[in-house]
Amino acid sequence: MYKLFLRSLISVLFVLGFSLNANAEFKVGFVYVGPTGDHGWTYQHDEGRKAVEAAGIKTTYVESVPEGADAERVIRQLAQSGHDLIFTTSFGYMDPTNKVAKDFPNVKFEHATGYKREHSNVATYSARFYEGRTLLGHMAGKMTKTNTIGYIASFPIPEVIRGINAMTLAAQKVNPDIKTKIVWVFTWYDPGKESEAAQALIDQGADIIMQHTDSTAPVQVAEKAGVWSFGQASDMQRFAPKSILTSIIDDWAPYYVERSIAARDGTWKQQDTWHGLKEGMVAMAPYNSAMGDDLIKEVEQLQKDLASGKAHSFTGPIYDQKGNILVAEGAVADDGMLAGMNVYVKGVEGDIPQ
Amino acid sequence: MSFDLNFIGILIGAIMASSVPLILAASGELITERSGVLNLGVEGMMIIGAISGFALMIVTGNLFFAVIGSMLSGLIISLIFGLLTQSLLTNHVATGLALTIFGIGMSAMIGKNFVGIPGKEFPLLFVNLKESIPFLGPIFFGHSIILYFAFGLPFLTNYFLKKTKTGLIIRAVGDSPTSASNQGINVTLVRYSCILYGGAMCGLAGAYLSLIYTPQWIENMTGGRGWIALALVVFATWSPIKVLIGALIFGGITILQLHMQAVGLRIPVQLLSALPYIMTIIVLVVISRDSRKIKLNTPTSLGQIFYKEK
Lengths: 354, 310
Prior knowledge:
The complex is a heterodimer of chains A (354) and B (310).
Chain A: H1 2-20, E1 27-31, H2 41-54, E2 58-62, H3 69-80, E3 85-88, H4 94-103, E4 108-112, E5 122-127, H5 129-143, E6 148-153, H6 158-174, E7 179-184, H7 191-203, E8 208-211, H8 217-225, E9 228-231, E10 244-250, H9 253-265, E11 272-275, E12 282-284, H10 293-308, E13 318-319, E14 325-327, H11 335-339
Parallel strand pairs in A: 1-2, 1-3, 3-4, 4-5, 5-11, 6-7, 6-8, 8-9, 9-10
Antiparallel strand pairs in A: 10-12, 13-14
Chain B: H1 5-34, H2 42-60, H3 63-87, H4 92-111, H5 127-132, H6 136-140, H7 145-163, H8 165-175, H9 177-182, H10 187-213, H11 225-235, H12 240-263, H13 269-287, H14 291-297
Helix pairs in contact in B: 1-7, 1-10, 1-11, 1-12, 2-3, 2-4, 2-10, 2-11, 3-4, 3-10, 7-8, 7-12, 11-12, 12-13
């Protein structure tokens, strides 16, 4: 409660500040779930915003906006204060974005990682992070000695479950004995809690730490404990130079620039964008030489195949935990199935929190 | 789950490390509250301590300066609270909330230049003993000096409040500032001192996070621990020893529930996540049932503004 209260107070003050200098100039607004200094998810979105600014378009942002009622207030304020295009960059902003969009038909909205486009002025976009997770799974399966992969998960939404599944499938392919242990922390960003989760997983025998949370704390714990880890959203290599094998990098800049220019020039259209390694929205940080040249070559080849479409992260046969078939042999999962993924594949331990 | 003795020792060591910021901040706030001042700015003072400690460590390269500096900055920021509530007689609750908001914003501003710099290793004591003695080694050794200080602090605080004259004066001021004032005690001075002490301890608690626990600067890195410390003080009914117990239970269950998840126990994860809060409250309420003792320990004038009659 206190967090909600404080953050709402801060956000309201912020937004009040913006609304005072509203004018007719074309402006793009960004709503972030974390602080721009998280060096993960929000940091990368802000890099994208800076690219828009560099392209000569005025931007503003509100950071650390909690998902929920406050989000709607912040989005509404941005719309009221003369922003023409608003990027809402977290899954939990999905309903607030659509709600505000209804009341502001002349403002364009872009919601990240969601699937609801209830009005013609709402577009959605996301990246195929799971392609990156496939590469991580391959490396993890090869590098683990204890056959245990520790996974710090945030919230049980399709995007996170998709990542867990993609990673596990790829790891199983190269190492059938692999086990994935998952700890849910129910936050996108709490360095203390994330590091405690990482430590718990290491104590339980994981020698690979993977995270779907936004701070750099888990990789630092891994570095200290001498186990392997992977960076999330941004290149986190300098926080754990020995431990990090690579990072999945989200590169939003080209998309943000393209859409902002389109909105300014009047060519903006509603669409659903889901780009991956091919388009460069998902990129990989340099691979750690500790993996050895052979493994690096393998991973680079797999990366190329995923980008070209020769390989797919979810190629059948895929079974769920009970052994029911999800994707038939030789087939690949379609985007609809990927977007709504809510079951674990075989080999993942535990239940999805409901 | 491996249940060998050494593993349990490591687990207990981890639990102790995670409860340090709560113990430090709550012990400081306890003294402040016993003098009748309710400072809700714990979170803000902690985050200021965290950034100042980290910034000083990067700038001077000296961990000693960093730790002292974090306490000083906590003290300085609590001085603002003191000036407002004691000299200008503003409302404690509103001022404390403002202090937290100010601290979070201010720390983010200072911290802009320190984002993304890895921290320096903080020296841990008796590391070889930790590894050579099974079970007891990881519990008692291989910690930072701040942890040992934190675990001694509740006992010192208890002794100080109960057995020393200064402690008695603080309690008198907290219970009845008017009577204390009539006895010739300078109520404002006592309260100022307690506020400053609380600020310094909160600063230290923040520095523990940014220098030792997760050695780096991350915005909002206190993650609400200041509020938990505040709640601990109340649920522990202003008793330093119960603060220590509460902090250990909270830290312990936080870490145990993560282990239970990693083991794959089939308990709903949401319940596990809520467990630290629920259990801490239940335990503290149960061990503090004695209403006579609550009355004895509760600073009666908590949060009330004191006007000295002239």
